[in-house]
Amino acid sequence: MKLGKITKGIAGFYYVDVNGELFECKARGIFRKNKIIPLIGDQVTIEILDESKRIGMIEEIKPRYNELIRPTVANIDQVVVVFSIVQPDLNLFLLDRFLILGESKGLDILICLNKTDLIDNKALDMIKSRYQKTNYKILTTNIINNQNLDDLKKKLLNKTSVFAGPSGVGKSSILKEITGSNLEVGEVSVKTGRGKHTTRHAELLAISNNSWVVDTPGFSSLDIDYIDINDLSDYFPEFNDYIESCKFASCSHINEPGCKVKQAVAENIINNERYESYIQFYKEIKESSRRY
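The chain above was modelled as a monomer; its predicted structure follows.
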C-alpha cells in the first residue's frame, strides 16, 4: 500500500500522486456501495496493480478536515479569490459571495486583484479601502510584467490552495506562470463582456513539495442558501469587534435599536458597501428559507 493524494478525477478514473509519481486508479466498489465519492485533494492509500503502467486501486480515503461543494475539493487550507479589475469588470458583490464561501469553511483567504495594468492607482486604492477593516490579504497582479507573481507563489507554499473566481479573470494565466503547467487560457467575450470557460474540470497542480493549487472552472454565480441566517454576520470579519456590544444578543444588524454594527457603518468605520452586501445576502437567505 502507498499513500498519495488525488490530483484529478475524470470519468471514474482518479489520478493519485505518490511522491511525484502519478498512478491511474479506480476506487473499490465498497465506496460506491457506501455512497462515498473520492474527491480531489483526498489523501488515499492505493494498492499498486501494475508498477510499470502506474495503475492502482484506491483502498482507503483518509478523513477529510474540510470539503467544498463548488468546486468539489477536499482538504483545502486557503482560497485565493481571483477577480480582474476590468475585462471582465470587477463585480464586488460577487466577490463578497466568494469571501463568504471561504469564511464559512474556515479557510484562510487571499484576494487577488488581477489585470491591474488596466487601472490607475487611485481607483485601485478605492477598491482596496472596501476591505481595509476585514484584514484580508490583498495582492495585485498582472501577467504583462509578472507583477507580484513571486509574492503570490510564496503565499502558496506549504499549503493546498484553491483558486476561485469568475471566468476570464486570469486564474489559468496566473497558474500557468506559477506552476509552468500547460493550461488552456481563454479570452473575454467581446459580445457579453464576460469570461469564457477554459478550465473544464478541477485539478490539483504541484508547485513544490507539500504545496498544491487547485484550478477550477469559472462560474458567475454562487448560491449562499446553505448558510444559517444567524451565522451570516460571523462571515463579515469587520463586524467582529461590534457584534458582542449590540443591545440584543439576537441582533440581525438591520432594524434593531442599539446595534453597534450599524453605528460603526454610520461612523464610516465599517464600509457601507460591504454592509449593503450583508443586507442583500441576509434578505436572500431569508427569502430562500421561506421557499422550503
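Helices lie at 29-33, 92-104, 121-130, 149-156, 171-179, 240-243, 260-266, 272-291.
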